[in-house]
Amino acid sequence: MLYWLGAALGADRLKRLADRIPLTEARDVEPAESWFRRHGAWAVLLGRTVPGVRSLVSIPAGVERMPLWLFCLLTVVGSAVWNTVFVGLGHQLGDRWTEVGRYSDLINYVVIGGIALAVAVFLIRRLRRRRRARDPVAGEPAGR
After folding, report:
1. First-to-last C-alpha distance (Å) of the chain
2. How far is CA 53 from CA 12, 59, 102, 134, in A?
3. pLDDT tens, 78-113?
4. Half-sphere CA count of 30, side-chain side, radius 13 A
5. Residue 132: enclosing H or E segment and its boundaries?
6. Which is nearest to 79 in space by CA: 53, 45, 39, 56?
7. CA torsion 45→47→49→54, rounded to 10°?
8. How many other CB atoms are there within 10 angstroms of residue 52's CB atom?
9. DSSP, res 72
10. What's the pTM value of the predicted model, to 2 decimals?
């Protein structure tokens, strides 16, 4: 569904949509577009193994009109890797699988904290840039 959404939106509509979302701009989409053009196949393949990215990688694949057969193949391979790792780990752990929670909770908190920090830094920088764009004098030292 997200592949088709990306294909239906296209790059221009996606940029217009980005302009409407608070604290985002059309120019935020351009580096992602360029990166996906260079690494599209790898992005889909590896993206299918990363939580949170697993679904979202479908949108740029659709926007860039990656051939559907290639997108499906990369999705199957990437998802098979993801599932094989977890099934294999579950098999190896056997009845001890509940012990993973002790470690995964800590990892989850660190990852969530890192994401929250990255979002906070992004928002602070974006708000400062917007403030400077509205009031060019605000960024200058007093007395000028």
Report:
1. 55
2. 22, 10, 24, 34
3. 889 888 988 888 888 888 877 777 777 777 788 888
4. 4
5. helix 100-134
6. 45
7. -120
8. 10
9. H
10. 0.63
